[in-house]
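Apologies for my clumsy wording, but could you write out the amino acids of a protein and the tokens describing how it folds?
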Amino acid sequence: MLLASLLVEADRVVTVDTLVHRLWGEAPPLRARNTLQNYVLRLRRALGAPADTGPLRTHHRGYLIETDPETLDVRRFTSLVRLGRTALEQGTAERAAVLLRQALELWRGDPLCDLPGDVFPELRPTLQEQRLSALELRIDADLAVGRHADVLPELRALVESHPLREHFWTQRMLALYRCARQGEALECYRTVTALLADELGVTPGPALQDMHARLLSAAPDLGRPPAMTDATWSRNSPSRHRLPVETTGFIGRETQLAQIRALLSTARLVTLTGVGGVGKTRLALRSAAQLAASYADGVHLADLAPLTSPDLLGRAVSEALGLRDQSARPPSEAIEDRLRDQQLLLVLDNCEHVADAVAALVLRMLRAAPGLTVLATSRHRLGVPGEHILTVPSLTLPDPDAAHDAPQPPESSEAVRLLVQRATASAPAFGITSRNRAVVAQLCRRLDGIPLAIELAAVRLGAMTADEILERLDDRFRVLSLPDMPGTERRYQHTLRGVIDWSHTLCTPQERLLWARLSVFSGGFDLPAAEAVCEGEGIEREEVLNLLAALVDKSLVAVNSTGPRARYSMLETIRQYGLEQLNEQTHHTSLRIRHSAHYRAMALRAGADWCGPHEVDWLLRLRDELPNLRSALDFCASRPEHAGTAAQIAVDLARTRCWFFNSVLGEGRYWLERLLASRPVLPPGLKTGAVAMKAWIALCQGDNPAAETFLAECRDEAEDAERSTAAPLTFIEGAHALLVDSAPESIPRLATAREQFQRAGQRGDAHMATMMWAMAEAFLGDSASARAASREYTAEAEASGAQWAGSWACWCAGLVELRHGNPAESLAPLRHALAQQTSFGDNWGPVWGVETLAWAVADMNRHADAARLLGAAHRLRQDTGVALTGLRPFHDAHTAAERGVRAALSAPEYAEAWAYGASKNSVPFALHTSAEAAGARPRATRQTADPAV
């Protein structure tokens, strides 16, 4: 029992209390701990290994047994299943079947059958579930290679022994169908439906219902062995897929889903085209979700609707891929590097307004990444070689000539089903009756089956009858074409415009005016923004809330109330219509100026509150507002008279470290370079700040050549500026001396910059100077001065109440302890800083937190752990694009740690440990590994810092 208790948690510490409970339950002996120690001694003798070198180790919290991964059947089983699952997802079904058979052959009976039946009650069903899941996968693989007849006897036994496990029934139905036994396959569905109703009172799940529907329609892919079935897709959707969750029901589109599935099985670029509102986005997302399991590296969505400039396309795609690149290289190069060896599906939504840039980027990605597949939505084709076009049609419509008792009544059509589903949400009493059936069918036909039009009409059924809506269509939809009229695309656009025009007519004059003004926002907005930007000339500030609520009720504006403040958004088609109305008004430019001024004021407030109690709240808020900030920057940057507004926004976003926090450092530099390249006339202080921030970002990117150039610009600018603007230059010179030259002269320079910022009342900038000064002391100063600087930095951060600043002060305290004290004592502050930065979503700090933990663990002579952490740190740097070679003190410390670890380990040992760390999720792995190191006795103490490191 003791051996089993340790083996089920092999390589992990099992506490004494847990072992006592497993051995004796609720009635342990009087001296249970002593008895347990005797059992441990006897087990060690049985294993023939002493305490210090054997696999059974003593830990201060309990005991653990160390094992080789290949010695435990359960680990071999898990590994083989994982390989089999990956092979199946990648379309190599024969290999998957072999691997899964090997995994299942490791089973020699029920789980833990050699132990009493009352022990490990929670583990036995878990292991049994893993076995059944592996069995399902193996049968999926057999079906994929055409062994449907071979698996039928096995599936008969499985549905008898596990009658409530729906996937076995789904597999049996498919196997029967492929054996030309369609009747028996349908009878299986009737059997399991009755069984579920009798036993559980439920209906079959989506996968089983989908298989039944596909059998009835004789779906083309059922007659051949596909790489994956829909049931498998729904079960195996990886958590790494970045797709939004559906919030309303999905109606119909079976034909289009099958077409997309067939196209993506052979084509690498498929573009869904069609009029706005026809459902391209929803169809693409549903297809991607169904196909998710077919892509080993997941499915990622990039919504391009908020983009205001093609220049930002690469960064939008980078964000969608989870790529946090901070380097100076173009985003497209970072994207190519990420995708080169991956197999994934990338969904590019709303491409039409940046189609040329999308086409160029897609072509480049497809050439660089053979495992990439792209599913795009656009109102017109991209024009990329190899592109396959699928025009998304309207929903199916009821037959105008069909009788009321026809085999296919109107409510069986997709358009009517959608109308009924959406209408019952806003008008619960609505339903299809004998009186309104014909009117509803005519309404859907007059709306041409376009989902957006139907959904807008459905909302009105809460206040109007279908007859009344139809009467309005007669008056309003004069642009509608008859179904047999040529010019399909023009008809669709007219239809959609008619629907939106109609919704526009139903609004009051003030609601229409607010609709047009709200279209100036990108990516959403909050109530204060709507009030500040949209008031005036027909709308009083206090009227905005009620008017906005009215637009929400009309489904023209959506509201998300899950966060600390309500956030509003508009469908892109609705927003584009509003923009057209806005551009026809004489005051549209003044509205954009108000929009830019509002976000300038927001950035200014964030900068003023920087290094205060609300700095993390500001960082999260600015993250939400990045689309609007980009829109304001783009508008002002193209107009010389507003260049000052753009420069102020860009500088304040850099001052608040927004670009750092959100891992879009390259974008911050892009805006500053773009603005300064036009040589705008700016106030001396603002221009000096912009040049300094540009140089600061280049320094942090490790782009030393650019940093040298920008530093020279800073000096030139400072010569022409007032003495009050000297602080930014002093700071950049000090940062350059630290990060590029690793020179001790950086310490007094940064101390001077700190004093200059403090005298000028620039609290946030003074904090950054304090941070860099304390860091310079840690790397280049002596023990006394480094500790004094760290204490001063910590006191300043604590007094400010700033969480982000506090996390960096904690990190700096750990760095000082590492370089001037006991490496083991540095782990606690370093780990705390890393955990805190991760908790509020910082993408920059953890890069350095994991790296510094690797140095500390290396100094403790835990060389294998240090090698793993170096690998984990490398992965984070790769994700963010940080060039360590350009940051000399960090690079030197990294090199010293790596040199020491390599000297202690053999080359294969180092490579294996490094690769293991690089394969992990860096931050959780670093926290776990350093926690284990902190719990062990430190093996080395550093007494003095090595200035060369």
Summary: The chain has 44 helices and ten strands.
